[in-house]
């Protein structure tokens, strides 16, 4: 299981995930005012993407799916 969570993305991928995760969290806060379930989903998704950025780990790559970044 340790090898599953091994970092597998470079700094470019980490920055991209950090930006996307931040946008999702902010968008979720704004959307949550109008549609609560959408806000919650966006905040949780953004949190997971930020986790990937901090860890330097991509769940799709860990599962063997090749991504462009």
Describe this structure in words.
With 69 residues, this protein is mainly α. It has a domain at 24-69. It contains three helices and no strands. The chain has helices at 11-31, 36-55, 59-62. The longest helix has 21 residues, at 11-31. It is elongated, with a radius of gyration of 13 Å. The relative contact order is 0.22.
Quick recap:
The chain is mainly α and 69 residues long. It has 3 helices and no strands.
Fold topology:
Layout: H1 11-31, H2 36-55, H3 59-62
Question: What is the H/E order?
Answer: HHH
Number of strands: 0
Low-confidence stretches: none
Indicate the overall shape. elongated
Keywords:
single chain, 69 residues, mainly alpha, 65% helix
């Amino acid at each position: 299981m340790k090898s599953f969570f091994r970092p597998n993305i470079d700094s470019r991928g980490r920055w991209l995930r950090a930006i996307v995760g931040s946008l999702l969290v902010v968008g979720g806060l704004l959307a949550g005012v109008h549609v609560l379930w959408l806000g919650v989903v966006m905040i949780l998704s953004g949190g997971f993407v930020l986790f990937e950025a901090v860890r330097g780990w991509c769940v799709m790559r860990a599962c063997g799916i090749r991504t462009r970044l």
